[in-house]
Protein: glutathione transferase
Organism: Panstrongylus megistus
Amino acid sequence: MSTYKLTYFPVKALAEPIRFILSYMDKEFEDVRFERENWPTIKPTMPFGKVPVLEVDGTQLHQSTAITRYFGKEAGIAGKDNWEALQIDIAVDTIHDLRQAISSFWYESDENVKEKKRNEVLKDVVPFYLNKLDELVKSNGGYLANSALSWGDLYFIAISDYLSHMAGIDIFENHPNLKSLKDTVLGIPKIKAWVDKRPKSDL
Amino acid sequence: MSTYKLTYFPVKALAEPIRFILSYMDKEFEDVRFERENWPTIKPTMPFGKVPVLEVDGTQLHQSTAITRYFGKEAGIAGKDNWEALQIDIAVDTIHDLRQAISSFWYESDENVKEKKRNEVLKDVVPFYLNKLDELVKSNGGYLANSALSWGDLYFIAISDYLSHMAGIDIFENHPNLKSLKDTVLGIPKIKAWVDKRPKSDL
């Protein structure tokens, strides 16, 4: 049996999809959450100086999307053929485009630049993406792709608190199909068990 | 036989990986390059208001990485198992992290902010990533992953002119393993044939 050790800041954000998929697969993992003051020491020990990093039997893996996709395949929730896998990948990278737009102001240090970007992104980009994603889920029987649960759905719902926190809104408000997808994913018993026991954090 | 229609600006950038993989597979495609002045008209007709978009038998696909991965699987250059596919995905998303860092100043409209970001990114981020990627290729027998050609190598080399142009440097200079990978990919006869006949553009 493989051993899993996940290293990240003490938040959900980009590590949470890995926590979701490992929980979904009923795999135990060591959930290492370091304090921000220790990051300068930890950073040089990570493959490309970034986290989350998942060690599988001592081998360091980075890139949360790639890792979640890998386990999604292993779990059998990555589409029934290459075309279906493509539809999941498209949806997930679209969510990353939304995330990048929100991150572009959230991680901006100059307050004037931040405010200008925030206004642009919240006025146009965020509503556009959320409406389109809501339509996508509606047209896919309540899921992001292929009218079936996939690792993409787990990825999206796992980072949704992070997106809402950065944007300063509840991304599910007025988006009934996204809200329904959230309820579906959080209703999966193994996901629910994880969410009930995980440490509390804002993002 | 499927028909392929690719729509993008008149540049290489994010469409070039799709052009590379379709050329590698010897698939004919319509290469629609619209002028920037027509973008406002075209934008609302695209799935999430972005390009490149590839129409396969009339079905619109977006997200260049997802599309290139899909064809990579169909072409048999996507790893021999899930673990190998993961290594390719990690490498490609790492290249996207590098691209995002470079894009963060390239697409900045405020000249003061742009200059400050450019200095930070070119001084630290770009050399760090290029050195690490050079090591990665060295340790993988001349490829990004698994000591074998993959769609990830095609993706990287296809966008390399875009990366160099935005960064204002030749990303292959002083990175002999990356340069060797470039020569390998551009030496593939079907890729060479495409590169020889493609329209010229800076990025």
Remarks:
- The two ends of chain A are 31 Å apart (CA to CA).
- Chain A has two domains: 4-75+190-197, 82-187.
- The interface with chain B takes residues 47-50, 61-63, 65-67, 69-70, 73-74, 82-83, 85-86, 89-90, 93-94, 97, 100, 104, 110, 113, 128-129, 132 of chain A (CB under 8 Å).
- The CA atoms of residues 52 and 63 of chain A lie 7 Å apart.
